[in-house]
Design brief:
The protein has two helices and four strands; from the N terminus they run E-H-E-E-H-E. It is α+β, with helices and mostly antiparallel strands and about 60 residues long. The protein has a single domain, classed as Alpha-Beta Plaits (2-Layer Sandwich). The strands form two sheets. Strands 1-4 form a two-stranded antiparallel sheet. Strands 2-3 form a two-stranded antiparallel ribbon. The longest helix has 10 residues, at about 45-55. The chain is globular. Bound molecules: iron/sulfur cluster.
């Protein structure tokens, strides 16, 4: 399982990292980064919850 990031959409709101800090973080430029790649199955629900709250739909869980 992977997470596709549309980096050009990310506005650094951080809602993904607030919702699922086990999966998402922000780098020094306030750009989303992944804590795991590939993502373990045990974090699927968290990954999807974080993707859902992104206000610009920059995150997609695939696989
Ligand atoms: S919620 Fe969306 S816009 Fe905000 S940091 Fe995460 S990916 Fe970027």
């Amino acid at each position: 399982m992977h997470i596709q990031i549309q980096a050009d959409r990310c506005e650094g709101h951080g809602l993904c990292a607030d919702t699922a800090p086990e999966v998402y973080a922000l780098d020094d430029d306030a750009m989303v980064v992944l804590r795991h790649d590939p993502l373990p199955e045990t974090l699927r629900a968290k990954a999807e919850a974080g993707a859902r709250v992104c206000p610009v739909a920059a995150l997609r869980v695939v696989g």
